[in-house]
Design goal:
alpha+beta; 9-stranded mixed sheet; 10 helices; 9 strands; disordered N terminus; transmembrane helix; membrane; transmembrane
Length: 352
């Protein structure tokens, strides 16, 4: 089969001075002439190339739809004209244009890597700040709950005429300015029935309104004599005069709280004689402070930690009241033998 020779059209110029237009047919003819092949040979090579392309991944196929033939790259490269080969098209699209259309006509848009990385960093920052915010909010909430539930600090009252006799865990005052015997006993009973820490000691100091030397209003602790007068106690005058002004009234925390009284004296013999005479009416006078008002007949002698005590036993063989001298200057009155011992341990040592 004879082929027509197609002269090179790249540099030929017609007599009018206008260059001839390049066509696909002329380029193929020139390529065949340079390679020394025939049309059948090149058609067979083109068929083999198409078969090979069907076995290659989709990304290596031509991305120009509708193309059935490809121009050999060598034809343009031989002439240095920069002809782009359609057999292996570029797979990386220009920046900002997305991915080229794939086989079948589906168009997929991809986000450039710098923008994708920026989005990922923004997402990580958002998650991190969310965790920090939740942590701080939780810490603030826990702190608020903790401090709002702290028990209110109890200030130890400063009272005129009060001397510490016993070491206590808590100290309270009971205003007795307008109280009489029955109302005082009722007020103290409310304190006795309140919940207290186990084995704790609470001092309850009866007070009355007074004025300082400067004329300012203040609280003053009742003296032992005023306290016995408030209770209408049937005590002899010699016993009352033998007592020091300072005394202690309080509670020991137990499942059933125990009341106690502590008097101080500088006249042991007079105080002892006065206590023995008071045995006849003591249960009626101060028994309600201990939750006992009636019962018992006679006091009996007992010994607790080498101290002689007098004990009034009830019908259930339990003590209604007991009293004794912890030392020659201290009288303890309570209704529980164990509490008597614990009170002895809590006494403040008198200065020598």
């Amino acid at each position: 089969m004879e082929t027509k020779e197609t002269p090179a059209r790249t540099t030929e110029v017609i007599q009018s001075g206008v260059p001839r237009i390049r066509t696909y047919e002329r380029d193929v003819g020139e390529f065949m002439k340079q390679e020394g092949g025939t049309a059948a040979k090149f058609a067979l090579a083109e068929q083999e190339r198409r078969i090979n392309n069907t076995e290659q991944p989709l990304t290596s196929r031509p991305f120009l739809r509708g193309s059935t033939t490809s121009l050999p790259a060598q034809a343009g490269e031989a002439r240095g004209e920069g002809v782009v080969s359609l057999q292996n098209p570029p797979t990386t699209p220009p920046r900002g244009l997305g991915t080229p259309p794939q086989a079948g006509g589906d168009v997929k848009i991809s986000i450039p890597l710098p923008q994708m990385e920026l989005m990922r960093k923004s997402a990580r920052s958002l998650v991190l700040w969310s965790v920090v915010f939740l942590f701080l909010a939780g810490a603030i909430g826990i702190g608020y709950w903790y401090f709002s539930n702290l028990p209110a600090a109890e200030n130890t009252p400063t009272i005129s005429g009060m001397t510490k006799i016993i070491l206590a865990d808590r100290e309270k005052t009971l205003d007795s300015s307008r109280l009489v015997r029955d109302t005082f006993i009722t007020a103290f009973a409310r304190e006795r029935e309140a919940a207290l820490a186990l084995s704790s000691f609470t001092l309850i100091t009866p007070t009355k309104a007074a004025r300082s030397a400067e004329g300012e209003a203040m609280e003053r602790a009742l003296t032992a004599q005023e306290f016995l007068s408030l209770l209408n106690a049937s005590t002899e005058g010699g016993f009352v005069r033998a007592l020091e002004p300072q005394f202690a009234l309080g509670l020991r925390g137990l499942p059933t709280n125990r009341a106690f009284l502590v008097f101080k004296t500088n006249y042991y013999q007079t105080a002892l004689a006065g206590m023995l005479k008071w045995e006849k009416t003591i249960l009626g006078d101060i028994g309600p402070l201990f939750g006992e008002a009636i019962g018992g007949v006679n006091f009996t002698d007992r010994t607790i930690r080498n101290r002689d005590i007098r004990e009034l036993i009830g019908t259930d063989d339990k003590p209604l009241l007991l009293y004794g001298f912890a030392d020659k200057k201290t009288i303890i009155i309570t209704n529980d033998e164990d509490s008597f011992e614990k009170i002895m341990d809590k006494l403040v040592a008198a200065p020598q």
